[in-house]
Specification:
- By secondary structure, this protein is an all-alpha fold.
- Helix content is 82%, strand content 0%.
- It starts with a helix and ends with a helix.
Protein backbone atom coordinates (compact mmCIF):
# COMPACT_ATOMS: atom_id res chain seq x y z
CA UNK A 1 0.00 0.00 0.00
CA UNK A 2 2.74 2.39 0.94
CA UNK A 3 4.54 1.61 -2.29
CA UNK A 4 1.33 2.15 -4.30
CA UNK A 5 0.63 5.48 -2.55
CA UNK A 6 4.14 6.60 -3.22
CA UNK A 7 3.77 5.64 -6.90
CA UNK A 8 0.48 7.55 -7.27
CA UNK A 9 1.92 10.54 -5.44
CA UNK A 10 4.94 10.56 -7.71
CA UNK A 11 2.63 10.38 -10.74
CA UNK A 12 0.59 13.36 -9.54
CA UNK A 13 3.75 15.41 -9.04
CA UNK A 14 4.91 14.61 -12.57
CA UNK A 15 1.48 15.44 -13.99
CA UNK A 16 1.40 18.78 -12.14
CA UNK A 17 4.90 19.63 -13.23
CA UNK A 18 4.00 18.75 -16.79
CA UNK A 19 0.94 20.99 -16.74
CA UNK A 20 3.02 23.86 -15.32
CA UNK A 21 5.60 23.43 -18.07
CA UNK A 22 2.82 23.43 -20.65
CA UNK A 23 1.42 26.68 -19.22
CA UNK A 24 4.86 28.31 -19.23
CA UNK A 25 5.48 27.20 -22.78
CA UNK A 26 2.04 28.42 -23.85
CA UNK A 27 2.69 31.83 -22.25
CA UNK A 28 6.08 32.04 -23.86
CA UNK A 29 4.60 31.17 -27.22
CA UNK A 30 1.78 33.68 -26.82
CA UNK A 31 4.07 36.47 -25.62
CA UNK A 32 5.82 37.07 -28.94
CA UNK A 33 2.44 37.25 -30.71
CA UNK A 34 1.11 39.87 -28.32
CA UNK A 35 4.47 41.68 -28.19
CA UNK A 36 4.72 41.50 -31.96
CA UNK A 37 1.59 43.61 -32.39
CA UNK A 38 2.85 46.14 -29.82
CA UNK A 39 6.28 46.25 -31.39
CA UNK A 40 4.77 46.73 -34.84
CA UNK A 41 2.70 49.66 -33.57
CA UNK A 42 5.69 51.12 -31.72
CA UNK A 43 7.89 50.74 -34.80
CA UNK A 44 5.27 52.52 -36.91
CA UNK A 45 5.06 55.37 -34.38
CA UNK A 46 8.85 55.64 -34.24
CA UNK A 47 9.07 55.67 -38.03
CA UNK A 48 6.44 58.42 -38.19
CA UNK A 49 8.25 60.44 -35.52
CA UNK A 50 11.52 60.06 -37.42
CA UNK A 51 9.90 61.26 -40.64
CA UNK A 52 8.39 64.27 -38.87
CA UNK A 53 11.73 65.07 -37.22
CA UNK A 54 13.52 64.71 -40.57
CA UNK A 55 11.03 67.13 -42.15
CA UNK A 56 11.51 69.61 -39.29
CA UNK A 57 15.28 69.32 -39.70
CA UNK A 58 14.98 69.85 -43.45
CA UNK A 59 12.85 72.96 -42.95
CA UNK A 60 15.25 74.28 -40.30
CA UNK A 61 18.21 73.75 -42.66
CA UNK A 62 16.35 75.52 -45.47
CA UNK A 63 15.57 78.48 -43.17
CA UNK A 64 19.18 78.59 -42.01
CA UNK A 65 20.48 78.49 -45.60
CA UNK A 66 18.11 81.30 -46.62
CA UNK A 67 19.12 83.33 -43.56
CA UNK A 68 22.80 82.90 -44.47
CA UNK A 69 22.03 83.95 -48.05
CA UNK A 70 20.22 87.08 -46.85
CA UNK A 71 23.05 87.93 -44.45
CA UNK A 72 25.62 87.51 -47.23
CA UNK A 73 23.64 89.86 -49.48
CA UNK A 74 23.36 92.44 -46.70
CA UNK A 75 27.13 92.19 -46.12
CA UNK A 76 27.76 92.85 -49.81
CA UNK A 77 25.42 95.85 -49.72
CA UNK A 78 27.07 97.27 -46.59
CA UNK A 79 30.55 96.69 -48.05
CA UNK A 80 29.54 98.49 -51.24
CA UNK A 81 28.11 101.47 -49.38
CA UNK A 82 31.20 101.69 -47.18
CA UNK A 83 33.42 101.62 -50.28
CA UNK A 84 31.37 104.46 -51.80
CA UNK A 85 31.77 106.54 -48.64
CA UNK A 86 35.54 106.07 -48.94
CA UNK A 87 35.54 106.88 -52.68
CA UNK A 88 36.72 103.35 -53.48
CA UNK A 89 34.53 103.06 -56.55
CA UNK A 90 36.11 99.96 -58.08
CA UNK A 91 35.57 97.99 -54.86
CA UNK A 92 32.01 99.34 -54.65
CA UNK A 93 31.27 98.27 -58.23
CA UNK A 94 32.58 94.77 -57.47
CA UNK A 95 30.38 94.35 -54.36
CA UNK A 96 27.22 95.67 -56.00
CA UNK A 97 27.78 93.70 -59.22
CA UNK A 98 28.09 90.51 -57.18
CA UNK A 99 24.89 91.43 -55.35
CA UNK A 100 23.07 91.92 -58.66
CA UNK A 101 24.03 88.37 -59.69
CA UNK A 102 22.42 86.96 -56.53
CA UNK A 103 19.08 88.46 -57.62
CA UNK A 104 17.84 89.22 -54.11
CA UNK A 105 15.43 91.84 -52.75
CA UNK A 106 18.04 94.64 -53.05
CA UNK A 107 18.86 94.04 -56.73
CA UNK A 108 17.30 97.33 -57.88
CA UNK A 109 19.34 99.27 -55.31
CA UNK A 110 22.47 97.31 -56.27
CA UNK A 111 21.94 98.20 -59.95
CA UNK A 112 21.66 101.89 -59.09
CA UNK A 113 24.82 101.89 -56.97
CA UNK A 114 26.70 99.86 -59.61
CA UNK A 115 25.84 102.54 -62.17
CA UNK A 116 26.81 105.27 -59.69
CA UNK A 117 30.22 103.66 -59.09
CA UNK A 118 30.76 103.10 -62.82
CA UNK A 119 30.04 106.77 -63.50
CA UNK A 120 32.49 107.86 -60.81
CA UNK A 121 35.11 105.57 -62.37
CA UNK A 122 34.55 107.25 -65.73
CA UNK A 123 32.79 104.23 -67.27
CA UNK A 124 30.08 106.27 -68.99
CA UNK A 125 28.72 103.63 -71.38
CA UNK A 126 28.69 100.93 -68.68
CA UNK A 127 26.79 103.25 -66.32
CA UNK A 128 24.16 104.06 -68.97
CA UNK A 129 23.75 100.34 -69.70
CA UNK A 130 23.29 99.53 -66.00
CA UNK A 131 20.69 102.30 -65.59
CA UNK A 132 18.82 100.94 -68.62
CA UNK A 133 18.87 97.50 -66.99
CA UNK A 134 17.45 99.00 -63.78
CA UNK A 135 14.60 100.73 -65.63
CA UNK A 136 13.79 97.65 -67.70
CA UNK A 137 13.83 95.10 -64.88
CA UNK A 138 12.29 97.31 -62.19
CA UNK A 139 9.96 99.85 -63.84
CA UNK A 140 8.11 100.41 -60.54
CA UNK A 141 11.21 100.63 -58.33
CA UNK A 142 11.69 103.61 -56.06
CA UNK A 143 15.30 103.65 -57.30
CA UNK A 144 14.12 104.46 -60.83
CA UNK A 145 13.85 108.20 -60.08
CA UNK A 146 17.42 108.23 -58.72
CA UNK A 147 18.54 106.29 -61.77
CA UNK A 148 16.99 108.84 -64.13
CA UNK A 149 18.68 111.72 -62.28
CA UNK A 150 21.99 109.85 -62.51
CA UNK A 151 21.45 109.20 -66.22
CA UNK A 152 21.06 112.93 -66.88
CA UNK A 153 24.37 113.56 -65.09
CA UNK A 154 26.14 110.73 -66.93
CA UNK A 155 24.99 111.94 -70.35
CA UNK A 156 25.90 115.55 -69.58
CA UNK A 157 29.49 114.93 -68.50
CA UNK A 158 32.49 113.57 -70.37
CA UNK A 159 32.73 110.36 -68.40
CA UNK A 160 35.93 111.46 -66.66
CA UNK A 161 36.86 110.04 -63.29
CA UNK A 162 35.80 111.76 -60.08
CA UNK A 163 37.84 114.78 -59.08
CA UNK A 164 39.45 114.26 -55.62
CA UNK A 165 38.87 117.97 -54.90
CA UNK A 166 35.12 117.53 -55.39
CA UNK A 167 34.71 116.14 -51.86
CA UNK A 168 36.17 119.29 -50.31
CA UNK A 169 33.78 121.33 -52.45
CA UNK A 170 30.85 119.19 -51.27
CA UNK A 171 31.89 119.60 -47.62
CA UNK A 172 32.06 123.38 -47.99
CA UNK A 173 28.61 123.44 -49.59
CA UNK A 174 27.19 121.34 -46.74
CA UNK A 175 28.64 123.75 -44.16
CA UNK A 176 27.11 126.67 -46.05
CA UNK A 177 23.81 124.80 -46.26
CA UNK A 178 23.81 124.14 -42.52
CA UNK A 179 24.36 127.82 -41.80
CA UNK A 180 21.56 128.80 -44.16
CA UNK A 181 19.21 126.25 -42.58
CA UNK A 182 19.87 127.74 -39.15
CA UNK A 183 19.22 131.33 -40.24
CA UNK A 184 16.68 130.96 -43.07
CA UNK A 185 15.06 127.48 -43.21
CA UNK A 186 12.64 128.63 -45.91
CA UNK A 187 15.64 129.23 -48.23
CA UNK A 188 17.67 126.22 -47.13
CA UNK A 189 14.96 123.53 -47.34
CA UNK A 190 14.47 123.72 -51.13
CA UNK A 191 18.26 123.39 -51.55
CA UNK A 192 18.27 120.28 -49.33
CA UNK A 193 15.44 118.78 -51.36
CA UNK A 194 17.43 119.46 -54.52
CA UNK A 195 20.39 117.51 -53.11
CA UNK A 196 18.19 114.63 -51.97
CA UNK A 197 16.50 114.37 -55.37
CA UNK A 198 19.74 114.71 -57.31
CA UNK A 199 22.54 112.29 -58.16
CA UNK A 200 24.95 113.29 -55.41
CA UNK A 201 27.04 110.86 -53.39
CA UNK A 202 25.36 108.82 -50.63
CA UNK A 203 27.55 110.61 -48.09
CA UNK A 204 26.33 114.03 -49.22
CA UNK A 205 22.68 112.96 -49.31
CA UNK A 206 22.96 111.44 -45.85
CA UNK A 207 24.52 114.61 -44.43
CA UNK A 208 21.94 116.81 -46.15
CA UNK A 209 19.17 114.72 -44.61
CA UNK A 210 20.83 115.04 -41.19
CA UNK A 211 21.01 118.83 -41.58
CA UNK A 212 17.30 118.82 -42.46
CA UNK A 213 16.38 116.63 -39.47
CA UNK A 214 18.41 118.70 -37.02
CA UNK A 215 16.68 121.93 -38.03
CA UNK A 216 13.48 121.09 -36.17
CA UNK A 217 11.30 123.65 -37.95
CA UNK A 218 7.77 122.63 -39.00
CA UNK A 219 8.80 122.92 -42.67
CA UNK A 220 11.83 120.66 -42.14
CA UNK A 221 9.77 118.09 -40.26
CA UNK A 222 7.20 118.08 -43.05
CA UNK A 223 9.88 117.26 -45.66
CA UNK A 224 11.42 114.65 -43.36
CA UNK A 225 7.98 113.09 -42.92
CA UNK A 226 7.48 112.87 -46.68
CA UNK A 227 10.80 111.08 -47.10
CA UNK A 228 9.97 108.74 -44.21
CA UNK A 229 6.68 107.92 -45.95
CA UNK A 230 8.60 106.81 -49.04
CA UNK A 231 8.97 109.84 -51.29
CA UNK A 232 12.65 109.02 -51.84
CA UNK A 233 14.63 105.79 -52.23
CA UNK A 234 14.51 103.10 -49.49
CA UNK A 235 17.97 103.96 -48.10
CA UNK A 236 17.00 107.57 -47.45
CA UNK A 237 13.58 106.48 -46.20
CA UNK A 238 15.13 104.30 -43.49
CA UNK A 239 17.46 107.13 -42.46
CA UNK A 240 14.53 109.56 -42.35
CA UNK A 241 12.63 107.14 -40.10
CA UNK A 242 15.58 107.01 -37.71
CA UNK A 243 16.02 110.80 -37.71
CA UNK A 244 12.30 111.32 -37.22
CA UNK A 245 12.45 109.24 -34.03
CA UNK A 246 15.58 111.11 -32.93
CA UNK A 247 14.67 114.71 -33.73
CA UNK A 248 10.94 114.68 -34.53
CA UNK A 249 8.43 116.59 -32.47
CA UNK A 250 5.07 115.53 -31.08
CA UNK A 251 3.78 114.40 -34.45
CA UNK A 252 6.70 112.03 -35.12
CA UNK A 253 5.08 109.04 -33.41
CA UNK A 254 1.95 109.37 -35.52
CA UNK A 255 3.98 109.57 -38.75
CA UNK A 256 6.00 106.48 -37.80
CA UNK A 257 2.83 104.51 -37.04
CA UNK A 258 1.39 105.54 -40.42
CA UNK A 259 4.59 104.49 -42.20
CA UNK A 260 4.50 101.10 -40.51
CA UNK A 261 0.86 100.47 -41.38
CA UNK A 262 1.07 101.63 -44.99
CA UNK A 263 4.38 100.01 -45.97
CA UNK A 264 4.68 96.51 -47.41
CA UNK A 265 8.49 96.61 -47.21
CA UNK A 266 9.73 94.40 -44.37
CA UNK A 267 12.95 96.40 -43.99
CA UNK A 268 11.04 99.67 -43.69
CA UNK A 269 8.82 98.12 -41.02
CA UNK A 270 11.94 96.86 -39.25
CA UNK A 271 13.39 100.38 -39.36
CA UNK A 272 10.24 101.73 -37.68
CA UNK A 273 10.43 99.06 -34.97
CA UNK A 274 14.06 99.98 -34.29
CA UNK A 275 13.20 103.67 -34.26
CA UNK A 276 10.92 103.01 -31.30
CA UNK A 277 14.04 102.18 -29.25
CA UNK A 278 15.33 105.71 -29.93
CA UNK A 279 12.00 107.34 -29.13
CA UNK A 280 11.31 104.94 -26.23
CA UNK A 281 7.81 104.20 -27.51
CA UNK A 282 7.01 101.06 -25.49
CA UNK A 283 3.31 101.34 -26.20
CA UNK A 284 3.82 100.87 -29.95
CA UNK A 285 6.36 98.09 -29.40
CA UNK A 286 3.97 96.25 -27.07
CA UNK A 287 1.16 96.51 -29.62
CA UNK A 288 3.39 95.08 -32.37
CA UNK A 289 4.74 92.38 -30.04
CA UNK A 290 1.16 91.20 -29.45
CA UNK A 291 -0.45 91.70 -32.84
CA UNK A 292 2.12 91.65 -35.68
CA UNK A 293 1.34 88.79 -38.09
CA UNK A 294 4.86 88.56 -39.54
CA UNK A 295 6.77 86.22 -37.14
CA UNK A 296 10.18 87.85 -37.69
CA UNK A 297 8.86 91.38 -37.20
CA UNK A 298 6.97 90.26 -34.12
CA UNK A 299 10.15 88.79 -32.65
CA UNK A 300 11.99 92.03 -33.46
CA UNK A 301 9.33 93.99 -31.55
CA UNK A 302 9.60 91.59 -28.58
CA UNK A 303 13.40 91.94 -28.45
CA UNK A 304 13.18 95.72 -28.59
CA UNK A 305 10.52 95.72 -25.92
CA UNK A 306 13.09 94.01 -23.69
CA UNK A 307 15.67 96.67 -24.56
CA UNK A 308 13.29 99.52 -23.68
CA UNK A 309 12.38 98.05 -20.28
CA UNK A 310 8.99 96.60 -21.17
CA UNK A 311 9.21 93.80 -18.59
CA UNK A 312 5.65 94.25 -17.35
CA UNK A 313 4.27 93.98 -20.89
CA UNK A 314 6.37 90.88 -21.60
CA UNK A 315 5.34 89.19 -18.34
CA UNK A 316 1.70 89.79 -19.23
CA UNK A 317 2.26 88.27 -22.69
CA UNK A 318 4.14 85.09 -21.76
CA UNK A 319 1.39 83.06 -20.01
CA UNK A 320 -1.08 83.75 -22.84
CA UNK A 321 1.34 82.87 -25.64
CA UNK A 322 1.01 79.48 -27.36
CA UNK A 323 3.76 79.77 -29.99
CA UNK A 324 6.94 78.13 -28.70
CA UNK A 325 9.22 80.28 -30.86
CA UNK A 326 7.61 83.46 -29.55
CA UNK A 327 7.99 82.21 -25.98
CA UNK A 328 11.71 81.66 -26.61
CA UNK A 329 11.98 85.22 -27.92
CA UNK A 330 10.29 86.54 -24.77
CA UNK A 331 12.88 84.65 -22.71
CA UNK A 332 15.60 86.35 -24.77
CA UNK A 333 13.92 89.70 -24.12
CA UNK A 334 13.82 88.97 -20.38
CA UNK A 335 17.55 88.28 -20.50
CA UNK A 336 18.34 91.39 -22.59
CA UNK A 337 16.32 93.53 -20.18
CA UNK A 338 17.89 91.93 -17.09
CA UNK A 339 14.49 90.68 -15.93
CA UNK A 340 15.40 87.89 -13.50
CA UNK A 341 11.88 87.97 -12.05
CA UNK A 342 10.33 87.05 -15.40
CA UNK A 343 12.82 84.21 -15.97
CA UNK A 344 12.28 82.84 -12.46
CA UNK A 345 8.52 82.82 -13.01
CA UNK A 346 9.05 80.73 -16.16
CA UNK A 347 11.50 78.41 -14.40
CA UNK A 348 8.93 77.80 -11.64
CA UNK A 349 5.75 77.38 -13.70
CA UNK A 350 6.63 76.42 -17.29
CA UNK A 351 5.58 72.84 -18.13
CA UNK A 352 7.70 72.60 -21.28
CA UNK A 353 11.04 71.15 -20.05
CA UNK A 354 13.06 72.78 -22.85
CA UNK A 355 11.69 76.26 -22.12
CA UNK A 356 12.23 75.72 -18.40
CA UNK A 357 15.82 74.70 -19.13
CA UNK A 358 16.39 77.79 -21.30
CA UNK A 359 15.08 80.03 -18.50
CA UNK A 360 17.48 78.45 -16.00
CA UNK A 361 20.39 78.73 -18.47
CA UNK A 362 19.76 82.45 -18.85
CA UNK A 363 19.48 82.90 -15.08
CA UNK A 364 22.84 81.16 -14.67
CA UNK A 365 24.41 83.83 -16.93
CA UNK A 366 22.83 86.87 -15.29
CA UNK A 367 24.80 87.00 -12.07
CA UNK A 368 22.21 89.14 -10.28
CA UNK A 369 21.32 88.61 -6.62
CA UNK A 370 17.77 87.55 -7.47
CA UNK A 371 18.99 85.06 -10.09
CA UNK A 372 21.63 83.58 -7.78
CA UNK A 373 19.13 83.14 -4.95
CA UNK A 374 16.85 81.13 -7.22
CA UNK A 375 19.77 79.00 -8.45
CA UNK A 376 20.70 78.22 -4.83
CA UNK A 377 17.08 77.31 -4.14
CA UNK A 378 17.16 74.97 -7.14
CA UNK A 379 20.33 73.26 -5.92
CA UNK A 380 18.89 72.67 -2.45
CA UNK A 381 15.83 70.78 -3.72
Amino acid sequence: MNVRRAFVRAGMICFTAGMMNLAICSSAAAAPQSGGKGQSSETLDESQDEKQQAERDRQAQAREAEQERMEHMQELYDEGREALDQDEFRAAEKSFSELVKLNGPQTDAALYWTAYAQNREGKKEAAIGTIADLKKRYPQSRWKKDGEALEIEVRSNTGSKANPEAQNDEDLKLLALQGLMNSSPEKGIPLVEGILNGSGSPRVKSKALFVLAQNGSPQAEEVLGRIARGQSNPDLQRKAISYLAMFGGKGAGKILAEVYTSSSDTEVKRAVIRSYIVSGDREQLAALAKNESNPELRKEAIRNLGVTGGQAELQAMYPKETDRGVKEEILNAYFIGGDAKGLIAVARTEKDPELKKKAVEKLSLMGSKEANEYLMELLQK
